[in-house]
């Protein structure tokens, strides 16, 4: 009878993790769809995503971190590209995202121009203030200012001879006061509600470039958000002695702005946070994980490694030092013990249109989920 009970509990546990996996995959598929338009600055991408995330957290049984709202709203300037995005070189029409990108700080321009070669990869038209460069990889980002020129990067595979004649129609729109919101929720602790374990992940991505191209951002960072929402469901169903908090940050791609705003305007005392785990780019894992701040918090890193060795979850847990490369950074600067975890191996798509849900392996999601849960159990108990 006892053996049968153990088998039954194992089956229930396995079924639960499978459901978490299916839920996480559904979240990634949803967040990378055209509905959210790259979770960025055109077509209401960020605001639609924030509303979706608050609905998910509420339906899982979480409560706002403070007051009656899940949102912490702030604003910042951003350059956007909502309209025309047309380029032809030597008479050949190029496809946005696939064949070319514009520099995120570019201004609007509509012109026919002859290009003058400056070196092996750069061409200019001084009168129209246009710079064109040939590159092996198109990688986009976000800018909070507008330059007095237009810069265009072209994939070298898109053209087979030297670019001479350019026809361009690009529309930018600078927004001085773009509003975005961190989405903040928690599960109240049963014994020490004023002590906090915090999970964070940024939900924003690059948005869209023109009317027909958006950047899905599956690994960066729909993967992290899906893991955070799955953990939120788990802890809502399994309350802990400590309060478990969750923050989905906006503005990360524009310079870690959401996390900076939170640390300057905290909804909970930063001194009450026992530990923070930030997840970003966690959709792979066949080569293990890297832990940023491992050298800053060696005791916690040793604990994480011990749990991984005992459970045989991931092939390797790599140590990395302090780095300002995701939303953990501002918390570390304020003295909050923090790890930033990202997975290794698998696809190389990053800040491009190829970072899609259908090519994201998600092969170590369940093991990473279990490792994080076990790690926090030990921290709390």
Structure explained in plain terms:
The longest helix has 30 residues. About 5% of the residues have low confidence. This protein has seven helices and 18 strands. The strands form three sheets. Strands 1, 2, 12, 13, 14, 15, 16, 17 and 18 form a nine-stranded mixed beta sheet that branches. Strands 5-10-9-8-7 form a five-stranded mixed beta sheet, with no helix packed on it. The protein is an alpha/beta fold and about 375 residues long. Helix 1 crosses helix 3 and helix 5 packs across helix 7.
H/E order of the elements? HHEEEEEEEEEEEEEHEHEEHEHEH
CATH domain class of the largest domain = Alpha Beta
Second-tier CATH architecture of the largest domain: 3-Layer(aba) Sandwich
* CATH fold-level topology of the largest domain: Aminopeptidase
**Number of continuous helical runs:** 7
Structural class of the helices, strands and pairings? alpha/beta
Our Rg estimate from Cα atoms comes to 23 Å
